[in-house]
Design goal:
Elements lengths: L15 E5 L11 H9 L2 E4 L2 H10 L6 E3 L5 H13 L4 E4 L12 H10 L2 E5 L4 H9 L6 E6 L4 H9 L7 E6 L4 H12 L3 E6 L7 E6 H9 L8 E5 L12 H10 L4 H12 L3 H11 L1
Parallel strand pairs: 1-4, 1-5, 2-3, 2-4, 6-7
Antiparallel strand pairs: 7-10, 8-9, 8-10
């Protein structure tokens, strides 16, 4: 048996909180260890008891369930930790992926650590890593930003702070907001490489790869966008950037009949820069 390997852990589970990663969609992605722990704990805290109930029923696991979602996490975290103090072993699961990663679980971990309760994470599916691995974008450095703000002004403010970040940017996004978000990305970050990973591990899994504008055009043409979405934004400028300075290119486009702001927007798109950044640089050169 390898060092650190644990089996027959029932006697070690009392007063322990387990963070159990669950499948993103394909039930075959659950680990053998996750099934064992879910079958051995005293109680399971679920983001949605109905959703998790289907998973548990599929694997013939029957345990008392406790709801733990974004609207009750503060009070439930206290209850989970108190139960652990009394000797219960409790598994925390979210609807999909790892609890605490843009899902309930963070407050439970915080309170458990403060109370001296053992927290044991069980590795498993995580949407951001699954999408990143298959995206084709650089993986040597990435920044995970969770869910972007729902309001345009706040969303653009967050994106603006990431203009100079050299890492691949990874976000979760709601399907009904993805088109507006891509429009903001194009405006603030420029026409960078992008990937929209949709319905990971599920029947209709889809990876849309290309420039931000190309992915935006594809999704804008659809009647509706559905499913869980992970958005990845790459670094660097696109290839085939016209030679010459930005000022020369702007003047060239104006000479071809474009309005000045339209010319600036075109140059920003060509060079993978935010429009406001091109405008700022042009003003500095004056």
């Amino acid at each position: 048996m390898a060092a650190g390997e644990k089996t027959g852990a029932l006697h070690k589970m009392a007063g322990t909180i387990y963070l159990v990663a669950t499948p993103l969609g394909n039930l075959e992605d659950i680990t053998l260890r996750a099934l064992r722990v879910l079958g051995e704990v005293d109680r399971i805290a679920c983001e949605d008891t109905r959703h998790s109930g289907k998973l548990l029923k599929h694997f013939e696991i029957s345990k008392p369930l406790l709801s733990l979602h974004e609207h009750n996490e503060t009070e439930r975290a206290h209850e989970v930790v108190e139960r652990a103090k009394q000797g219960e072993s409790i598994a925390v699961v979210s609807d999909a992926g790892m609890p605490g990663i843009s899902d309930p679980g963070y407050r439970v971990v915080q309170e458990a650590i403060a109370a001296g309760i053992t927290v044991v994470p069980l590795p498993g599916p995580v949407a951001l890593e699954t999408a990143l691995a298959a995206s084709g974008l650089p993986t040597d450095a990435f920044r995970f930003g969770g869910f972007l703000p729902a309001k345009t002004t706040q969303r653009r403010k967050v994106l603006q702070a990431l203009v100079d970040d050299p890492a691949t940017l990874v976000f979760y996004e709601a399907p009904h907001r993805i088109v507006r978000t891509l429009d903001d990305v194009l405006e603030v970050l420029g026409d960078r490489p992008a990937v929209v990973a949709r319905e990971l591990t599920k029947l209709h899994e889809e990876f849309l790869r290309g420039s931000v504008s190309a992915v935006l055009a594809t999704l804008s043409a659809r009647d509706a966008v559905k499913g869980e979405i992970t958005l990845l934004i790459g670094r660097g400028a696109p290839l085939d950037v016209p030679e010459g300075t930005m000022a020369q290119r702007v003047e060239e486009l104006i000479g071809q009949g474009s309005e000045r702001m339209d010319a600036i927007k075109q140059v920003a798109k060509e060079r993978g820069l935010p429009k406001r950044e091109v405008y700022r640089l042009l003003e500095e050169q004056r």
